[in-house]
Amino acid sequence: MPIRKALELADERRLDLALIAPKATPPVCKIMDYGKYKFEIAKREKEARKNQHVINIKEVRLSAAIEEHDLGVKARNASKFLKHGDKVKVSIRYRGREMAHREIGFEVMEKFNSMLTVDYIVERKARIDGRSMVMVIGPKE
Fold this sequence. Notes:
With about 140 residues, this protein is of the alpha+beta class. It is about 40% helix and about 30% strand.
C-alpha cells in the first residue's frame, strides 16, 4: 500500500502509523495508538523491575586480635545481612607482625562462622590475598 494511502487511513481512524520493520522489503507498518503502546511497554518494564531482587555484597571487617564480644556483634550484623538476602564478605587485615601468625586469622574465621545464627553457604573459603584474609558467604536459598 502506498505511504500516502496508509497515512490517510491512519488519520481517518485517529491513530498513528508506526514503522515496525524498516529493513524489510517492502517496509512493514502498523496502524496503532502509539502513546498507548509506549505506556504498556513502560508498565511491563516497571513490573519486571519490581519483581527483581538485587543482591548486594556487604563487608564485615575483623582483625586477628578481635575480642569475643566484638566478634559477636559483627556476627549478628552478618546474620542480619544474610537474612535480608545479601552476600557477606568477611575480611581480616593483618598489621605488622600479625603476618607471622596467620593461623590466628583462620581461628577467628572459624569462631565467626560458629557464631552465625542463620543458614549460609561458603561461596569462597578463607584464603590470604596479600596482607588480608578474605571469605565470601551467601544466604542459603
